[in-house]
């Protein structure tokens, strides 16, 4: 073998040896005196000696939860989606640090910059639990990670409860969870008094007309809470159907998730759907704001009420959605919550 | 032993492809140290026979011996010391330099990376063929004739005992043809055995020592050059009207003018 | 500049490029000044600077270098054995196999993503190879054809997985296929560097054989090389290196196709020079691209996308500027 071949092979062996020694210098901290301990959605136990004060939150719904818990001063970095059009105005209204673009955004839930996160020296990172590779990299630096995965409204309660413990805001967590539960209970009472026939709702994700949610989804829970029936009977989370199926189902109401390219009028104008009763009666509506109709935070009762009012306008004739929303925002986000309402109305 | 001066012995070989017989019970012998031409019309099986001699194809029946060794039992490395093969067509895709192409002839001597002695051997081969001035040119930029000379230099770098050439003069102009054939004669004088398939019987008759004639999947008459000048025999081989003209004790073929 | 000088330059560049890359990154702590201070023990915040440089940037820089090098050297070798300058390991179904494996793991979490991508990438190339094999012979045309078929099958399976995935998983899958070096860590490097190095080492050893194989099967066999055996060894080594790279970094499209051409334009087609330089140049070039992607914006840009946007124009520029001998 030539000298060049040998040199190259030695070089490779050298790098392999260097690599095998390379490992994160910050190991696990000693396990004693953990005052706080929760189990996240991965089933992993997160233990902290004291409430987290340097939180990097990489998911928007989690961030909203932290603001509701009044733990915003413990947040040192936010998901980059917060600075996107649509969400920015809301968070700017809640927090001057975001308004002045002072809070760093080391990535969204995907495509995070590990380097930025490490440099921020956080004592807690919140991210979707499905991001296993990012979680591994972050935990390798000895940083605790709370992994979130929301499949139902009870998961939302669990998340708020856990975040309350991790931030030392358990009392606040209990109080806002109790508030939300009581909202749902009183709504149900109002609903029970009516004898209207149950309506069927077809839910439409923003991917397009035929992209809907099955019976195992949070959307299904939402529709049932609103007292209606999900048209889609497939037991999957996310389903793409064909148009014939949609005609068969013949939903009474169609609810669109926030959609930048399609509006209810466009759907009503579709000639191939003119046999569908929702189209004939022009019962197509859009949950027009991702922030206001968020299904993954305690704001979800707002969506429940809105859909209920769309389905049963007579029963809920007295329900003033604007007022309900205003009340909810103040309750959840505190005094500044009212500003969210104003922004939204603009 | 009889075999000693026989470079190649072919016994009862048959070869077919897709159910079509191309060689049918062929027998032939080729003497060492001679320039032997395989002649015949298109489709008579010349190239197939040459490929079997070079081990690129294996006959379904019969035995081929190269210097007494059973061809079927040679591995690629042993074979490369015995026979070298020049294909009729070759297309290099990458623009290698001439020197790099010639150097690949040394593969049988090289484990993984060529040594200085291999480079010297290929320089000598290029010198012998007269293409040393082309050594740094891109092989793909050369004319067909120059490429042919490069491939012959590659064969010489390989240094086998027998050179098997399939239509070596096809892409060459007139002067290059005589240059090449004189080179082949020179190589034979130095002890090599050369077997070449030729379309043009006249060039073969001028330069050859021995001839194999092929017709209808068989070798008609092997060797014994003197009998080759029989006009009637040549008419059966080339299947047509032709005349022969005497030339330096041999003959040249001319097509018959209607 | 003659070939020798270019060669010396390319051999000596990787070390400084790697060192400079360690100074580049978005963090306001680990600035070049702070890193230098760390070496003289006068940094304000030595723990965090060291952590960023040693545990974040170093593994990422090494991983990027090896991924780029492995993809380039594999692409060059596969072009050599197929005698076709238009191929790379992706043509044989590697990327679609790996993408399907990753998607399956992301959607159903039955295997680590990286392992699943590696297994399916390797399986796809193996499948292409055995589908093309006929009478103990593998022709180039049938291999490329079966590669296209296998790619099609795995792309269909990938689409099926995506179809049944909820939007979050779907987005993870889509992002995986864009290439993702931002999750680099020592663990990822350790799990991939041995197969990458092993593949690269074999290709380095066999590099001159590629010159022989590039002239054609008959031409190789008559000079004493068994083309079938050598091709399998080289194909396996190239697949091993590139599928480990894809498994760890996602799909970095066309990289294995473009870089070997760049290296050929710079140094010529002789694989004795170009194979090692493909590794070095491929590693450096991806590192430089990744340095841009790490610093140009506050967040991470997918490396696969960035590579195309930066690499393709550069490639076109080189193709117009130099005569690479594809005119015939």
Q: Keywords for this structure?
A:
heterotrimer, A: 346 residues, alpha/beta, Rossmann fold, 4-stranded parallel sheet, 13% strand, B: 258 residues, 6-stranded mixed sheet, 8 helices
- The top-level CATH class of chain B is Alpha Beta
> What's the CATH class of the largest domain in chain A, please?
Alpha Beta
Overall 3D geometry of chain B? globular
- In total, the number of domains of chain B comes to 1
User: Uncertain runs of chain A with pLDDT below 50, 5 residues or more?
Assistant: 25-31
Helix/strand class of chain A? alpha/beta
| Low-confidence segments of chain B | none
CATH homologous superfamily of the largest domain in chain A - what is it?
Answer: Nitrogenase molybdenum iron protein domain
Total number of strands of chain A: 12
Shape, principal axes of CA atoms of chain A:
globular
Q: N-to-C SSE series of chain B?
A: EEEHEEHEHHHEHEHEEHEE
Q: What's the CATH superfamily of chain B, by name?
A: P-loop containing nucleotide triphosphate hydrolases
- What is the correct CATH architecture of the largest domain in chain A? 3-Layer(aba) Sandwich
Total individual domains of chain A: 2
Q: Name the helicity range of chain B.
A: 25-40%
Arithmetic mean pLDDT of chain A: 86
CATH topology of the largest domain in chain A: Rossmann fold
What layout of secondary structure does this protein have?
The complex is a heterotrimer of chains A (346), B (258) and C (328).
Chain A (H helix, E strand, L loop, with lengths): L2 H19 L14 E4 L5 E4 L6 E3 L2 H9 L6 E3 L10 H7 L1 H4 L14 H6 L4 E5 L3 H8 L5 E4 L4 H15 L2 H23 L7 E5 L6 E3 L4 H8 L3 E2 L7 E3 L2 H7 L3 E5 L6 H5 L8 H4 L3 E4 L12 H12 L9 H13 L3 H9 L1
Parallel strand pairs in A: 3-4, 3-5, 5-6, 7-9, 7-11, 11-12
Antiparallel strand pairs in A: 1-2, 8-10
Helix pairs in contact in A: 3-15, 7-8, 14-15
Chain B lengths: L5 E12 L2 E12 L3 E6 L5 H8 L7 E6 L2 E2 L5 H7 E4 L11 H6 L12 H14 L14 H15 L3 E5 L7 H16 L3 E5 L3 H7 L2 E6 L2 E5 L8 H8 L3 E6 L2 E6 L3
Parallel strand pairs in B: 3-8, 3-9, 6-7, 7-8
Antiparallel strand pairs in B: 1-2, 1-4, 4-5, 9-10, 11-12
Chain C lengths: L2 H10 L1 H9 L9 H8 L6 H36 L12 H15 L4 H20 E2 L2 E2 L1 H24 L3 H11 L8 H20 L1 H7 L3 H6 L4 H23 L5 H13 L3 H25 L7 H19 L7
Antiparallel strand pairs in C: 1-2
């Amino acid at each position: 073998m030539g000298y060049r071949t040998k040199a190259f092979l030695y070089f490779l062996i050298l790098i392999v040896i260097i690599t095998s020694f390379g490992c994160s210098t910050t190991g696990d901290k000693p396990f004693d005196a953990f005052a706080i301990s929760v189990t996240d959605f991965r089933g992993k136990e997160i233990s902290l000696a004291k409430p987290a004060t340097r939180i990097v939150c990489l998911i928007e719904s989690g961030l909203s939860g932290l603001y509701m818990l009044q733990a915003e001063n413990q947040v040192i970095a936010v998901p980059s989606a917060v600075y996107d059009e649509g969400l920015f105005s809301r968070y700017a209204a809640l927090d001057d640090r975001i308004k002045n673009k002072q809070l760093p955004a080391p990535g969204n839930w995907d495509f995070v910059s590990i380097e930025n996160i490490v440099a921020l020296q956080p004592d807690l990172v919140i991210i979707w639990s499905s991001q296993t590779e990012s979680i591994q990299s972050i935990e390798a630096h000895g940083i605790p990670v709370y992994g979130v995965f929301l499949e139902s409204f009870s998961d939302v309660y669990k998340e708020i409860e856990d975040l309350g413990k991790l931030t030392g805001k358990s009392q606040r967590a209990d109080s806002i969870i109790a508030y939300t539960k009581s909202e749902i209970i009183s709504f149900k009472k109002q609903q029970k008094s009516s004898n209207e026939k149950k309506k069927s709702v077809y839910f439409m994700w923003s991917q397009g007309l035929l992209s809907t949610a099955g019976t195992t989804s949070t959307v299904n829970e939402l529709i049932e809470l609103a007292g209606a029936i999900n048209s889609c009977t497939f037991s999957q989370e996310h389903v793409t159907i064909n148009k014939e199926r949609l005609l068969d189902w013949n939903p009474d109401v169609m609810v669109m998730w926030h959609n930048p390219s399609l509006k209810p009028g466009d759907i009503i104008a579709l000639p191939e759907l003119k046999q569908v009763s929702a189209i004939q009666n022009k019962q197509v509506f859009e949950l027009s704001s991702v922030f206001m109709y968020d299904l993954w935070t305690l704001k979800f009762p707002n969506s429940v009420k809105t859909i209920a009012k769309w389905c049963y306008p007579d029963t809920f004739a007295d329900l003033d959605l604007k007022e309900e929303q205003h009340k909810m925002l103040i309750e959840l986000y505190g005094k500044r919550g009212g500003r969210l309402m104003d922004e939204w109305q603009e | 032993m009889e075999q000693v001066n026989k470079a190649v012995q072919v016994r009862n070989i048959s070869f077919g492809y897709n159910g079509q017989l191309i060689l049918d019970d062929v027998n032939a012998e080729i003497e060492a140290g001679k320039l032997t031409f395989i002649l015949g019309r298109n489709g008579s099986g010349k190239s197939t026979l040459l490929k079997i001699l070079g081990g690129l194809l294996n006959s379904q029946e019969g035995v081929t011996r190269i210097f007494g060794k059973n061809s079927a039992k040679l591995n690629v490395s042993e074979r490369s010391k015995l026979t070298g093969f020049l294909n009729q067509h070759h297309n290099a895709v990458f623009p290698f330099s001439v020197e790099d192409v010639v150097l690949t002839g040394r593969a049988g001597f090289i484990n993984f990376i060529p040594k200085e002695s291999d480079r010297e051997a290929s320089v000598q081969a290029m010198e012998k063929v007269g293409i040393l001035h082309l050594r740094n040119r891109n092989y793909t930029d050369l004319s067909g004739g120059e490429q042919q000379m490069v491939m012959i230099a590659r064969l010489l770098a390989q240094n086998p005992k027998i050179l098997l050439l399939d239509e070596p003069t096809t892409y060459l102009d007139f002067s290059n043809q005589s240059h090449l054939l004189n080179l082949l004669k020179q190589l034979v004088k130095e002890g090599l055995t050369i077997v070449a398939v030729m379309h043009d019987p006249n060039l073969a008759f001028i330069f050859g020592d021995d001839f194999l004639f092929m017709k209808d999947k068989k070798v008609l008459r092997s060797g014994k050059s003197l009998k080759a000048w029989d006009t009637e025999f040549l008419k059966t081989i080339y299947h047509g009207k032709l005349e022969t003209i005497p030339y330096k004790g041999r003959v040249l073929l001319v097509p018959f003018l209607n | 500049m003659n070939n020798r000088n270019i060669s010396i330059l390319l051999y000596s560049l990787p070390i400084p490029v790697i060192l400079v890359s360690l100074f580049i990154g978005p963090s306001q702590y680990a600035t070049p000044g702070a890193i230098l201070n760390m070496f003289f023990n006068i940094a304000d915040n030595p723990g965090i600077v060291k952590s960023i440089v040693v545990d974040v940037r170093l593994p990422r820089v090494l991983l990027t270098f090896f991924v780029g090098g492995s993809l380039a050297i594999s692409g060059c070798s596969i072009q050599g054995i197929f005698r076709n300058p238009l191929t790379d390991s992706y043509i044989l179904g590697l990327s679609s196999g790996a993408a399907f494996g990753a998607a399956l793991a992301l959607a159903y979490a039955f295997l680590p993503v990286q392992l699943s991508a590696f297994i399916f990438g390797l399986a796809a190339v193996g499948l292409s190879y055995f589908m093309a094999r006929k009478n103990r012979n593998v022709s180039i045309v049938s291999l490329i054809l079966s590669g296209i078929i296998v790619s099609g099958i795995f792309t269909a399976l990938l689409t099926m997985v995506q179809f049944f995935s909820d939007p979050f998983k779907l987005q993870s899958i889509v992002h995986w296929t864009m290439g993702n070096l931002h999750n680099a860590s020592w663990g990822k490097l350790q799990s991939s560097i041995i197969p990458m190095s092993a593949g690269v080492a074999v290709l380095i050893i066999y590099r001159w054989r590629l010159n022989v194989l590039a002239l054609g099967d008959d031409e190789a066999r008559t000079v004493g090389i068994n083309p079938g055996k050598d091709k399998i060894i080289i194909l396996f080594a190239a697949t091993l290196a590139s599928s480990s790279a894809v498994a760890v970094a996602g799909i970095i499209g066309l990289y294995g196709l473009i870089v070997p051409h760049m290296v050929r334009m710079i140094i010529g087609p002789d694989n004795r020079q170009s194979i090692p330089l493909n590794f070095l140049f491929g590693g450096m070039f991806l590192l430089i691209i990744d340095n841009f992607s790490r610093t140009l914006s506050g967040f991470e840009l997918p490396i696969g996308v960035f590579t195309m946007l930066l690499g393709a124009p550069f490639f076109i520029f080189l193709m117009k500027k130099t005569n690479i001998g594809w005119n015939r």
